[in-house]
Design brief:
12 helices, 286 residues, globular, mainly alpha, homodimer
């Protein structure tokens, strides 16, 4: 199930990249085929990137048009991504990217509503101007960094489930098995395997040097792509959730102190302090 | 329960605005008190904005320091936001903002991990430069637009639940009751009430003129704030999810056609087409 949650995340991220390149940069299926094919030969090497390249090359025998252009944009689901999200919520493990992917499928299914809404709302110009090659490099970095967070969330979820339910999971072995053959098989699973072999109880794989440096190197490009998509009105819930996960995880201080104050204000839910132990309640209105 | 889901969303959005103004713009609790107090006197008038203003004004009797600064940033939850997310997933209703809020609380609880990660990862300079007054205006617009999407998701969820379970809910009456007194009571609930009185089966409240124009007017500011936060490394999962919801909802064509092609490629899950009726499967590798 966690495998499928990660799979949902990666598929959503690839779809967003497709949307950025198609809507934003006007790439044709033929160009997209070459782009994904090139990406599949390097750090993004994976089954899902490989079949994406193949899909863009496929012509509909009846019309001669790229088949992908003729497929209805309503994503279906069999529930495994949803179950991952629901279970992660119960276990208290953040899976921002997986959730965003499930939401992405849900909102895609509202095709009639979306068609009606498109006629109602004005949005910004969706064209991304600027150098095409530079954009491609940035998008590639953004995709890789976002995919790393999807794996990180899935691995952390399995660790938490293992602790909670005494599964005694061998995360290294799982990475090895996935590497051997499954829908999310990818070159980077070899790095993941090595990371968990060296440190089976690492709280988050992004903390390992290999991924820390991979993500830091891509940070600026990742932020730029997201900013460009936000400006152009191209929805990137998965990529945004991935970056928010990264930025929240590396924030020693989050604004949740305000949330706790609000909860104590309206519901006397109490709070803890940073300067002394104990549980406190304040009569805020006095 | 849906009330609480919306409440989670709004609280997360307010927390993110607090983080932008504090981390990004260096606002003190005293300044934040004045900002939220001013906002509460106009379109953002609501109980949650009102108590936020009051919280920033409260000094800890023991230390004389603003109490909010001394509260631990680990948000707790009693499960109602989570249940909203889980039920919305089951009903197939997109609730991006609510989910992001639940995730925001979950990741805040990983305090020790976050403190450790902060020492490991380098991020961008979190300072937001530029005109303070202009930023405040933009943030105010971004908060209002994001809050609109949180209500829109909650209202649509209740409509879907009403259809699915034959609840025969009177959405106008619910808006009126919430308006009368509850944690999410707000001036804008009067507009929501009027919208559903005029059109009880409106698929999404954002389609009503009053909200369409409110959100369109704030669109540019909303995007700018998000871009600034993304650039400064300040996590804004709720605001990003709200905008992604809006941008996806107003997209007649989403990239879910690629997702369907992938699902058919690796799992023969079939797809539908835009140019003819029926359900299709392709032997992509032939």
């Amino acid at each position: 199930m966690v495998h499928n949650g990660i799979e949902y995340g990666i598929m959503q991220l690839i779809a967003e990249v497709y949307d950025i390149l198609r809507r934003g940069a006007g790439a044709t299926p033929d160009e997209l085929h070459r782009i994904f094919d090139e990406w599949n030969r390097a750090e993004l090497n994976s089954y899902l990137v490989e079949i994406t390249a193949a899909i863009f090359a496929y012509s509909d025998p009846d019309t001669g048009r790229p088949l992908v252009d003729l497929i209805l944009d309503e994503a279906e689901q069999k529930g495994t991504g949803k179950w991952t999200s629901q279970n992660a919520l119960d276990l208290g493990v953040p899976t921002h990217t997986v959730n965003a992917a499930v939401e992405g499928r849900i909102i895609s299914a509202l095709k009639d509503e979306r068609l009606a809404a498109e006629r109602v709302f004005k949005g910004p110009d969706s064209a991304l101007h600027g150098d095409r090659e530079a954009l491609l490099g940035q998008v590639r970095s953004a995709l890789y960094a976002s995919i790393l967070t999807a794996y990180a969330q899935g691995m952390a979820l399995m660790q938490a489930a293992s602790r909670e339910y005494y599964y005694d999971l061998d995360i290294e072995a799982i990475a090895r098995i996935w590497r051997g053959g499954c829908i999310i098989r990818a070159g980077l699973l070899e790095d993941i395997r090595q990371v968990y072999r060296a440190k089976p109880d690492l709280p988050n794989m992004l903390l390992a040097d290999v991924f820390r440096s991979a993500i830091e190197k891509r940070q600026a490009a990742w932020r730029s792509v997201l900013q460009a998509a936000v400006g152009a009105g191209i929805p990137v819930p998965g990529m945004a959730a991935s970056l928010a996960y990264f930025d929240a995880y590396r924030s020693g201080r989050l604004p949740a102190n305000l949330t706790q104050a609000q909860r104590d204000y309206f519901g006397s839910h109490t709070y803890r302090r940073i300067d002394k132990d104990g549980v406190f309640h304040t009569e805020w209105q006095s």
